[in-house]
Amino acid sequence: MILCRVFVPTSSYAQEKVPFVPSEKDYEVVFIREGQRVVIPCRGSLENLNVTLHTKYPNKELHPDGKDSWWDARTGFTVPSHLISYAGVVSCQTRIGNETFKSPLYIVAVVGYKIYNLSLTPVEVRLSVGERLVLSCLAHTELNVGIEFNWTHSGQALVSAQTISLSNTLIVENVTVDHTGEYTCTASSGQMEKSASAFLKVYEKPFIDIEEPWLKVWEVNVEDQKSTQIPVKYLAYPDPSFKWLKNGLPLKEDYRIKQRSDALIIRGVKEIDAGNYTIVLINKITKEEQRRSFQLLVNVPPKIIEKEVAVDTDVHPYGSSPTLRCTARGFPTPALIHWQWMSKEDCPEAFSEIPLKKCTGWRDITNSSGHNPVDRIVTDTDHAQKKIVSSLKIKKAEARALYRCMAANKVAEDSRIILFHVTRGLEVSMLPSNEPVEEDHVALRCRADKLIYGNLAWFRVANISKSEQLASVQPCRSLTLQPPSQSVLATQHGTNVTLELLLPNASRQDEGLYACQVQNIKTKERTCLLRRLSLRGLEAARVVNNLTDQKVNISATISLLCDVAGTPTPTVVWTKNNHTVVEGSGVILSQQNHVLTIQRVKKEDSGLYTCTACNSRGCDTSQAFLTTEGTEEKTNVELIVPIGSVVIAMFFWLLIVFVIRGRKRPNGGDLKAGYLSMILDSEDMPMDEQCERLTYDANKWEFPRERLKLEGATSSEYRALMSELKILIHIGHHLNVVNLLGACTRPGGPLMVIVEYCKHGNLSSYLKSKRGEYSPYKKWVSAEEDSTDDDHLTMEDLISYSFQVAKGMEFLSSRKCIHRDLAARNILLSENNVVKICDFGLARDVYKDPDYVRKGDARLPLKWMAPETIFDRVYTTQSDVWSFGVLLWEIFSLGASPYPGVCIDESFCRRLKEGTRMRPPEYATTEIYQTMLDCWLDRPTDRPTFAELVEHLGNLLQASAQQVCVDLGNSMIAVVTLLSEQSEKCSRPLSVKMFEDIPVAHSSVMVSVCDSTNEIHKPHFQLLRCKSKESLASESSNQTSGYQSGYHSDDTDTPIYANEEVIMKHNMLKKPPPPSDKFNMEIRYSTPPV
Description:
Membrane topology: Single-pass type I membrane protein
Number of helices: 15
Protein name: receptor protein-tyrosine kinase
Radius of gyration: 57 Å
Domain Ig-like: 104-197, 302-418, 426-527, 541-627
CATH superfamily of the largest domain: Transferase(Phosphotransferase) domain 1
CATH architecture of the largest domain: Orthogonal Bundle
CATH topology of the largest domain: Transferase(Phosphotransferase), domain 1
Largest sheet: 8 strands, mixed
Organism: Mastacembelus armatus (zig-zag eel)
Binding site for ATP: 825
Shape: elongated
CATH class of the largest domain: Mainly Alpha
């Protein structure tokens, strides 16, 4: 049967002007498939309408093209699906006349077949027998896709049954072991198919099984950021519950620790994490438990505890026995703590807060020769606390040093550096040290260690009577303190800070109790050190008991006592018949010349003896006439002794003649060559036998002889000159040492050494020639003036000479060389005020033996020699420091002879050893004289090193360069930069236990004036010099130029060595001279029995 569907247009529609057939619904749904045409059923009541298709969301208009899209009144608008698949709503639209008509709305619904994804959950399932299996299959598809699900088990199709329910979810009731296997879900849309699988494991019963082997010890290092994971491998059904224990207790929650059943994760392991850990797994069904334990060892790098709690600088009193302690903690516990040390000289800037890592040269603690001796090292180990304690016991604290303790284990190492500072604490002293006299220049000196104390200040204690006794150290709060009116001077030497209260021309008003206030840096406590100042009144010299006339038998012994009194202590001079009495054979002056003893009295000893006592206030005399009795009868003993002496002398003279004839007599040059012996190459021969073994490179040092201008030479000094040539080669080049230029040593001509030319000659002569041209400060010169005409000597020049000599001696000491004859006569001055050390005639290389002891007799410069050299014949660098102090005295006295007015005899040596020192030279400042006293300390080890002298003099030279002097007519205003807390300061001469000058009836006193509007006078300190042949002759002699070698002729050496004769001449009136009179005298020295 054939059915025909005929579309008949309704005229009533057209009349009503409804071109589209209306729909019974507000909207219709149009289903479209991908790749197919879609018909939108917007049928029309009229044919041949111009219909367009409009879409919404987004808005778009489609026109029929007659090929892919068209409109038919019977069916509607045909269009490809891809043109409207994106649209949400479509409608047809036409225009009749001026009116537009729209069809009903049609919702576009896309019908697809694509399956995008298929998932089966859970993927892995574990069950025990009797439990229920549920698998869910979920497909992700296009819209309106019909899906069919199929299930398979291990490749076999599953069908619905009583225990199996199929759909997109598979349910199996009461699983058995046979249900173990792979389950697959297949989803099909007709045109597309996808599959997903899951695995089921069915166990007969619940269980827990931890894998073996189990690691019982875990060892980790302390880490800051890294995480440490300790795994736990097990098999179990069902998944067990768990808990972690530490040392038997539940492990506390911590943000660093993550607890899981399969691992323990610790982020940033710390020492506290060490311990015994236990994992407990619990079956949720059967409540069965399985445990495993392990020990966690945390390796901790060693750390020295004292670095956190102690200061880096340990301050200890001099002579104490401190204990240095280092406590190291770590795991494993360090086996030992190793100690090392370093002297301050190896790292001189260590105490100035430089990075200590720059200090090198550490030595084992057992190698501590020359510094603080070590008593013992005690080590104690506490494994329970994981620490080791090491104590280093110092036997005696004597010198500053650095100590380092080091601890190490398998992880790392740690060290601590201790700055071992030795201090003498607080000290208050007074200069002069004995009870001062009125009009003395007195200084109260307060010295403190700046590492312990600060804020030093002087005060005068009020409301304290002379009879009231107070302890020398008092809390400042218990005292009434008043600021003093006098000036103060602050200086610093190393770590010691000194504050001096200056009392120039002290008077009775200055007497009283003074307090030096210091503040402890750590505790801030203020402490006062008290010192009472008492002055002795001035009293003219007087003879207490007058001498009486005496008679004495010839050959007897008589003593005359001159008991004197006065303030200051008078000096005593004896005269006989107006001629000064000089010690000699049988004539002894003792007890500071108070006692005159004459042994073996002779007839010519009779006469008028006068004792004269003088001080600054006046003189007094006492006289006695000595009469001799009897005759000079020569006894048998008196005849036997000279006869026997003559016989013995002749015997020895003959013996010497035979010995000399048997071998060649060494000349003066040979003797001196012995002093010049040095060694460098041989270790089997003693030092005194190796002068000839020093090498001389002729190719390097030889100079053509014909190019030299000769002024004379002596052949007897050949060996000495050759030895000194080798010394110069060995020492090397330095600015402040006379440097070698060449030599002529080849046979056929005289031996000649060529050294630098120094135009001004030796320093001693140069200073004497400049005495009339000395001015403390440099003058300003205008641009129009010629500064070259100003050739006067200044304080800056004197300090510069001292500084340069110290630099040169520092170099010689670094070359292990001892000069042994350091004096101004052996210092040459070249152009631009450059000084050079010369005359190595007594120089000695101590490369192998720094404590070299010279033996044998020779003429030696006693005035420049240290006590240990005079008495023990010990020559060291410290004895050169003593000589340097004497050299400073020469420089700042402008070339004067040391120890003026003092006879160089046995009494001189004894008093030198007892601590008596020279008075300050005329032009020395306080700092310079203090430097001299430091160089003259009794113990050689207490004297400063040349390196310290270089630093100190360099500071003084810099301070001197800052002084400004302005010439204002006849006055001079000095602006001086001083280290003081006050704006105006005075300097004054220091006083110590000193050699007395030859007494004078009147002497002047140094005048110290502060900067003021009044005219400033040049300080003047009148010295009565006791001139030897050297000082008398050198002032009128011509200056020498060039290099002065160590092999002078005897006449030039005579005045400076101890075997020169001493003759004193003095004219004295019988009556006491008036105070204005002065003594004119000439003194020579006798040989002391050293």
